[in-house]
Amino acid sequence: MSRVCELTGKRAMVGNNVSHAMNKTKRKFNVNLIKKRFYIPEEDKWMTLKISTSALKTINKKGISAVIKEARAKGFLNQ
């Protein structure tokens, strides 16, 4: 499975390592992903999601139901 947040669609970015001599080599900025289980009371089931930590902060603020509803509207979550 790729390193993509299932709720926000965040994925790795590409950039440069820059040395003191200003030599540039390619590098990857990976997303800070965690695997987390959530209980959705409307559907009366548990759901395991691979999400970014910024998405986890959004879930803590808005609630899992609202965030899942937004993600399904944007087409990120297919369940």
Give the structure's gist in a few sentences:
It contains 2 helices and 4 strands, in the order E-E-E-E-H-H. The protein has 79 residues and is α+β, with helices and mostly antiparallel strands.
What features would you describe in this structure?
One of its GO terms (cellular component) is ribonucleoprotein complex. It comes from Croceibacter atlanticus (strain ATCC BAA-628 / JCM 21780 / CIP 108009 / IAM 15332 / KCTC 12090 / HTCC2559). Pfam families: Ribosomal_L28. This is Large ribosomal subunit protein bL28. One of its GO terms (biological process) is translation. The protein is of the alpha+beta class and 79 residues long. The protein has one domain: Roll (Ribosomal Protein L24e, Chain: T). Helix content is 27%, strand content 35%. The protein has two helices and four strands, in the order ββββαα. The protein has helices at residues 53-62, 64-74, and strands at residues 13-18, 24-29, 33-40, 45-52. Strands 1-2 form a two-stranded antiparallel ribbon. Strands 3-4 form a two-stranded antiparallel ribbon. Strand 3 (33-40) and strand 4 (45-52) form a beta hairpin. Helix 1 (53-62) crosses helix 2 (64-74). The longest helix is centred in the last third of the chain and has 11 residues, at 64-74. The radius of gyration is 16 Å and the shape is elongated. The two termini are 16 Å apart.
